[in-house]
Design brief:
There is one protein chain. The strands form three sheets. The protein has a five-stranded antiparallel sheet with strand order 7-3-10-9-8, with helices on both faces. A three-stranded antiparallel sheet has the order 4-5-6, with helices on one face. It has helices at about 5-20, 25-35, 40-50, 70-80, 85-100, 105-120, 175-185, 190-200, 210-220, 235, 245-255, 260-270, 315-340, and strands at about 55, 65, 120-125, 135-145, 145-155, 160-165, 230, 275-280, 290-300, 305-310. The model has no long low-confidence stretch (mean pLDDT about 90). It has 13 helices and ten strands. By secondary structure, it is of the alpha+beta class. Strand 1 (about 55) and strand 2 form a beta hairpin.
């Protein structure tokens, strides 16, 4: 948008002041607190023009102004600059992840905690789509005569467990033999491909029924292609924008819907930006219309997942952007080492 230098300075100051205080910003505040060097009347005229252009809005009569979604967009793209994390905070991210056990779920859980703590927003991490990964190994662990756990490690380094109910026809099964059979034929294949290949094979008679039973119960569970890790939702819900309102309930309900969360973040990652900021009504899901989401892809071998922070539109965009970028970078490095081990 074609703004004068004066208007850009006023908009920048209002956005930063509102992010910090949560209070509408008036012309006298700008004149006195920030020493802009203009009279309140001149500032009011400029604010009125910014409001006409859709960059500011007045929450109620006689109040000061607050940024609109469009005002935040101009701030992020034109006024904020290129955010970077300071050396001390970057080291904090690296130390926190480096001390985490070299295990996929542990790393993602810790990354979510780091994101939430350092951004003071809710953190969301989705795993890579299982269908895009290949199988590194399968292990069958019988618990008793009626229950079995399928332990599967994928090319991203993630380990998943699936419960299988057993029938009497599998009582005499040699599960070590079945494990060896599955690994011999499924290792290196994509999940859907592995199921199809195994189903088409002529399985040895002595454990054919057991293989069919495992595959039959495993397939529906594999259709849940991503998992969602969240941390720090309370950091968002304590903000005044959500206090005692329907917005809080709607946001909590949204965070509980893993499929919806995964779909939204996947669509953001599909835009192929290193860091993407989606503000207010730019978000397709209605519960996010009062929120901003900052996302970045991370890599686990050849697979791609998404990490994000979610907060009110009045979030600290520079901090959120920088934290998301650094965590995504370091998490990718650690998962790359994990998948190559």
């Amino acid at each position: 948008m074609d703004l004068t230098a004066r208007q850009r300075h006023i908009l920048d100051t209002i956005v930063q002041d509102y992010i910090r205080t949560g209070e509408p910003v008036g012309s006298r505040t700008l004149s006195k607190r920030h020493g802009i060097g203009l009279s309140p009347a001149t500032i009011r005229n400029e604010m009125a023009e910014l409001e006409e252009n859709g960059l500011l809005r007045q929450p109620h009569t006689s109040a000061g102004r607050i940024p609109s979604d469009s005002g935040y967009r101009v701030f992020v793209e034109e006024l904020m600059g290129r955010p970077t994390l300071g050396d001390e905070q970057r080291q904090q991210v690296e130390d926190s992840l480096d001390r985490t056990p070299r295990e996929f779920q542990a790393l993602l859980g810790q990354a979510a905690r780091v994101l939430a703590t350092m951004s003071q927003c809710a953190a969301i991490i989705t795993t890579p789509e299982m269908q895009a990964e290949t199988i590194r190994y399968v292990q069958l662990v019988p618990l008793n005569a009626q229950a079995l756990v399928v332990v599967m490690m994928t090319s991203s380094g993630e380990i998943r467990n699936y419960a299988i109910r057993l029938s009497e026809r599998t009582l005499d099964t040699d599960w070590v033999q079945v494990t060896n059979y599955l690994n011999a034929h499924a290792r290196g294949l994509a999940l859907t491909e592995a199921i199809q290949v195994l189903a088409a094979l002529s399985t040895p008679t002595d454990f054919a029924w057991s293989v069919r039973e495992v595959l039959g119960q495993l397939w529906p569970q594999l259709r849940v292609t991503t998992r969602v890790y969240t941390w720090g939702a309370s950091l968002v819900l304590k903000e005044p924008e959500f206090a005692g309102s329907d917005r809080m309930y709607a946001l909590v309900r949204w965070l509980e819907q893993s499929d919806e969360v995964s779909a939204v973040l996947e669509a953001m990652t599909a835009q192929h930006q290193p860091v993407l900021v989606s503000i207010g009504h730019e978000n397709t899901s209605e519960p996010l219309h009062s929120c901003s989401v900052v996302t970045a892809p991370y890599r686990a071998g050849d697979a791609i997942g998404t990490l994000a922070v979610l907060g009110p539109t009045r979030m600290d965009y520079a901090q959120a952007y920088a934290v998301v970028e650094v965590v995504a970078e370091h998490l990718s490095q650690m998962l790359s080492r994990l998948t190559s081990e």
